[in-house]
Structures are given as structure tokens and as C-alpha cells.
Inverse folding.
């Protein structure tokens, strides 16, 4: 194993300023719309903290005056004429729907 | 008659064009190898009829005297990240199991237009998240390679394009598509002793490619040698108005431009890549690479990429952040899996569907991405990572004042055994340490075989070039290929 790994393991055990707890994991799971069991949340606490403690090292980098990168290769966003270029493909759009009702996607009742 | 499955892209194209053999014979030979290699689990779906159909069209064109495309008669494997009309496309996930696109990705359409045929959809890490092909819902892909000395442990083919690498190394296809977000073409190519190039971000259209991290995702070819990569990249690349980040530039004639004379070129050796405790076989291969490029006429210069150590942690904020946003589309409503527990409402359906449909690594990355983008943490994590990314790109810009190309190992180790790194996500992430910086900077980068380690496993050398200089990268790759004399192959056991 690389020496770099040992360094990272050291960071993992000694630095943990922004650690997450089980409540936070449950909140993230809710925001992510992913159902999670108590046991999974427990396990995720350790995993997320390990990864978050490791990415903490970015805090060491002096980024004063640096603009966050938004495009890797200089490229200008193109505009196209404001005209209809496709459409009339309802059957293709609905072809993979797990529950289709007529010409619509079917979902569980949202409004009583 | 020669074994047609021993041939690469260029040899097949030439043989078909000259009438030495026909395209259908080639397709049949590769179809047979695919059918006989279930033990590798390289394919999720096999499409022998598609390969034959495309070959028949090429043979008919030749008989009619019509011009043949760049890939005419070449059957290929298609990574299951590319949407293929009428053929299941899953990104190796359960959530897309049974999804049959009603459209074709631009890159695959370009390849079919060039006369290639499809042998099947290749297994991969789920949503391209992984470095060992152990996150696929459809099971691990096995590398055809084994360690020497009677050790039969199953080895990782690398990832995420592990089906592509395994299939090419086992001669199930002469070439395959890959995609590279943080090394997913280069690392698997290195692990199995083949070549692969990730072009400049924007060369290949992302339209119809299942999205992972859109500012990083880039398609590219994987094949047995540099010339075959050049041919296939020409067929894949090109401006596409349907991708807002597609580069509106003509596709260079990379194959015609191949030239391994590197006189006048300067090749940089980044000192930060010489990690303490670097594997001695990797270090020796790197030294060989330096000697080969010198022999080809290049001048070697020492360079520094000071922010290298921050590339991986920046990547593991940016890529999950983009993934958490991209994968929000899997909601159980429009396509793919739906899990509707009894009496569940819409929100419960979303949560149940996504819990059932995404594998553990995908869930982990979506959650990290959601966390780093959430209120109160966005600036500390995401904005800081994008600033560090700007500094990494600046490092490369500064290096180009001193050199034209950069040479480094592709990965810090040879292929590892399946299961060896799955218990610790961080240990797995570290395998991409040399690959990720070029991804973050959007630069063209290629892996070519550099030799075998003491266990008899392939190692890869990586060449990184300036934006849009795929030609320079391919030429240096060719110079190495001509001198490395890499002919080793996995001994057939499958």
C-alpha cells in the first residue's frame, strides 16, 4: 500500500471537525429521497465521516483570489433559434413508464 | 485461415476492404468468443444479431462498390452507459433494469454510421462509480489475467469500464467504448494491458450517455493499440448541437497524423507523482517510459504540479455533487424501477424506489453529494473544491510553459484481487490518484501498456497532453508502444 494511504488514514483519525451524526445522516437520506434503515444509517455515519474528514484537507489550500472553475475547456454557450425542433413523440416518451395511465405517467394519489 | 479474433481494428478494416475476408466472418468469430466467455461476465446483454446485421450491410456496400466507413466491418463492445435504441441500457444498475431507450446516443450512432457493429452491452461499475467493476448490479467482471505461479485468485479488470477492458483483453472484441470521469478508461486499460484514450472534454458528445458527473464525463475508445484508438476516436468524436459542452471543432485526422518521431517535443515528469513508497515495479516502468521517449527524440524535463495531492479530495466532492443532481431523475415515474410499498404516497415511493434501485456505492455518493451541496456547507465544500480545481488546471497551464506532454504511471498498482479493497471506500478511491488530475482539467490523457510487474501483471503508462492535442498524446503513446514491445496476453482459462 502507498505511503500516501497511511497519511490519509492519519488524517482520518486525528481531524474530524465537521463530523456527521446519525440524525444528520437521516436528514441527508431524506433530502436524497433514499429510504434508509436504522442499521444502514449507523453504518453510514462512519463511512461519511471517513470520507468527509479526508476531503477536509482542501481547507489547507490558499484559494484567496481564485474563482471557482465553471468550465474546464473555454467554450461559449450557444443560442439556437427559438423554434420547435422536435416533439410529437409521446409514445416514445411514455414507452418505459413503470405505470402508465392513458397518455400520462401514473403516480400515487398526491392530493386528497 | 487466420484467427480473425486476433486482429485489431485497423487489420479488420483493411482485410474487409480488400476482400481478404468478409465482415460477416469477423462478426461470427467474435460472436463465438463472446458466447464462450460467460465466466468473465463482461457483457450484460449480448447482441450477436446486431453484429451480423451491421456486417451484412458492410459486405453489401463493398459488393456494390460503395465507400466504406472508418470502422467498416469492425464489431465492437458498447459500454452499458450508452443509450442504444431498442437494446436494454442499465448503467449496470437495478434502477434501470429493463429500460429500453427509444433513441441512440450520438457516440454510438457515429460508430454505427462508420460501419461498426455491436456485439453487446458491456458490464461496468454501476453508474460508472467504481474502480474495480465490483459495484455492478449484474455481478463482478473478472479480468482474464491471473497472477503467475498458479495463483488463481480472480482479479479486478479495473473500472468503471471493466467490461470493456476484460472483453478486449480476452479477445471478445477488438475494441470497445469506454467513458472516463476520473480514470475509468485509463485505469482499466492499464490493468489488462491494452490502450485507451480519454480525449479533451467536449470532443465526444455526452448526448445519450447516462450522466454521472457532467463536467467530467467524457467518452473514448479502448483497444489493443494506439492506431486502433486513433481510428475509433475519429469515428466517435465530433460536434453535436445536442450537447451544450460539445466543442464546435472539426475532427482531426488522428490516424493519418500518427508519427512516433518526438524530436523537438518536451516531456514533463511531475515530481509530485513520485509518491513516497511508490511500488518499485511502477517506478521502474516509469523510468523505462522516460528512456523510450528519449530514444524517440523527446527531451525530458522535470516539472511540478504542486496541487496534485488535492486532486482526489476535490474530485470526491465535485463528482458526487454532480451525481446527486444528475441521479435525481430516477424517481420511479418516467422509466426504470418503481417500488411502491402498500399505501405509500409519492414521497415514500421515491425513497423506496431509490433505496431498492441504487447500489451501496451509488447511494453513498448521492448522499455525500447531497451533503456537500446542502445549505451551510456549499461554500466550505463545493465552492472550495471548484477553486482547488481551478488551481489544478492552473498547475497544468504553468507546466505547458516548460513541456508539451506529461508522462506518469496510469495507476499506483497493478490489478488487485476482487474483494481486496471493497471494505474501505477510501482505499478504492486512491487507485485513481494519477488519473484524476487530468480529468479535473479536462485534458486528453491516454494509457498504453508499459510492461509487466513481478507477478506477471500488466502496468500502464499515462501520457497527458494540452487541451485539443490528442495527436501529441497518441504520437507519444505510439513511440512507447514501438519500444515497449508489449505482446503479453492472458493465458486462456475461461
Amino acid at each position: 500500500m502507498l505511503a500516501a494511504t497511511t497519511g490519509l488514514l492519519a488524517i482520518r483519525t486525528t481531524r474530524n471537525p465537521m463530523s456527521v451524526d446519525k440524525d444528520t445522516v437521516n436528514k441527508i437520506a431524506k433530502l436524497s429521497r433514499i429510504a434508509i434503515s436504522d442499521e444502514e444509517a449507523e453504518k453510514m455515519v462512519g463511512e461519511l465521516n471517513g470520507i468527509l474528514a479526508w476531503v477536509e484537507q482542501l481547507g489547507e489550500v490558499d484559494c484567496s483570489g481564485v474563482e471557482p472553475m465553471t468550465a474546464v475547456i473555454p467554450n461559449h454557450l450557444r443560442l439556437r433559434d427559438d423554434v420547435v425542433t422536435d416533439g410529437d413523440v409521446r409514445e416514445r416518451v411514455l414507452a418505459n413508464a413503470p405505470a402508465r395511465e392513458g397518455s400520462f405517467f401514473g403516480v400515487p394519489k398526491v392530493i386528497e | 485461415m487466420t484467427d480473425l479474433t486476433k486482429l485489431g481494428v485497423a487489420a479488420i478494416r483493411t482485410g474487409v476492404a480488400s476482400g481478404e475476408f468478409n465482415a460477416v466472418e469477423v462478426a461470427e468469430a467474435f460472436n463465438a468468443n463472446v458466447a464462450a466467455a460467460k465466466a468473465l461476465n463482461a457483457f450484460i446483454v449480448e447482441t450477436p444479431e446486431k453484429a451480423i446485421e451491421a456486417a451484412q450491410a458492410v459486405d453489401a456496400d463493398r459488393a456494390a462498390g460503395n465507400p466504406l466507413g472508418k470502422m467498416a466491418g469492425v464489431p465492437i463492445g458498447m459500454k452499458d452507459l450508452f443509450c442504444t435504441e431498442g437494446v436494454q441500457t442499465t448503467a449496470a444498475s437495478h434502477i434501470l433494469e429493463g429500460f429500453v431507450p427509444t433513441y441512440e446516443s450520438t457516440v454510438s450512432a457515429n460508430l454505427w454510421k462508420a460501419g461498426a457493429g455491436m456485439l453487446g452491452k458491456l458490464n461496468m461499475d454501476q453508474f460508472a462509480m467504481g474502480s474495480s467493476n465490483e459495484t455492478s448490479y449484474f455481478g463482478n467482471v473478472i479480468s482474464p489475467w491471473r497472477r503467475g505461479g498458479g495463483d488463481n485468485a480472480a482479479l479486478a479488470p479495473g473500472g468503471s469500464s471493466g467490461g470493456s477492458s476484460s472483453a478486449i483483453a480476452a479477445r471478445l472484441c477488438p475494441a470497445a467504448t469506454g467513458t472516463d470521469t476520473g480514470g475509468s478508461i485509463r485505469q482499466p486499460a492499464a490493468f489488462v494491458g491494452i490502450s485507451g484514450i480519454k480525449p479533451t472534454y467536449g470532443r465526444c458528445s455526452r448526448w445519450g450517455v447516462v450522466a454521472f458527473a457532467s463536467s467530467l464525463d467524457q467518452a473514448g475508445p479502448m483497444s489493443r493499440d494506439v492506431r486502433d484508438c486513433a481510428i475509433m476516436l475519429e469515428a466517435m468524436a465530433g460536434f453535436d448541437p445536442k450537447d451544450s459542452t460539445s466543442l464546435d471543432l472539426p475532427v482531426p485526422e488522428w490516424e493519418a497524423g500518427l508519427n512516433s518521431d518526438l524530436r523537438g517535443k518536451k516531456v514533463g515528469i511531475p515530481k509530485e507523482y513520485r509518491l513516497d513508497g511508490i511500488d518499485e515495479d511502477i517506478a521502474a516502468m516509469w523510468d523505462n517510459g522516460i528512456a523510450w521517449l528519449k530514444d524517440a527524440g523527446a527531451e525530458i524535463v522535470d516539472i511540478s504540479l504542486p496541487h496534485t495531492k488535492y486532486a482526489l479530495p476535490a474530485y470526491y466532492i465535485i463528482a458526487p455533487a454532480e451525481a446527486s443532481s444528475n441521479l435525481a431523475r430516477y424517481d420511479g415515474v418516467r422509466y426504470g424501477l418503481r417500488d411502491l410499498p402498500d399505501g405509500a404516497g409519492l414521497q415514500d415511493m421515491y425513497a423506496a424506489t431509490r433505496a431498492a434501485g441504487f447500489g451501496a456505492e451509488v447511494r453513498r455518493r448521492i448522499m455525500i453529494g447531497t451533503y456537500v451541496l446542502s445549505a451551510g456547507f456549499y461554500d466550505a465544500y463545493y465552492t472550495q473544491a471548484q477553486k482547488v480545481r481551478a488551481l489544478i488546471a492552473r498547475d497544468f497551464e504553468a507546466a505547458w510553459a516548460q513541456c508539451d506532454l506529461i508522462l506518469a504511471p496510469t495507476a499506483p498498482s497493478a490489478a488487485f484481487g476482487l474483494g481486496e479493497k471493497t471494505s474501505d471506500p477510501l482505499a478504492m478511491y486512491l487507485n485513481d490518484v494519477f488519473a484524476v488530475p487530468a480529468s479535473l482539467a479536462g485534458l486528453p490523457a491516454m494509457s498504453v501498456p508499459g510492461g509487466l510487474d513481478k507477478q506477471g501483471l500488466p502496468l500502464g503508462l499515462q501520457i497527458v497532453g494540452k487541451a485539443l492535442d490528442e495527436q501529441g498524446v497518441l504520437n507519444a503513446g505510439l513511440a512507447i508502444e514501438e519500444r515497449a514491445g508489449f505482446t503479453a496476453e492472458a493465458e486462456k482459462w475461461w
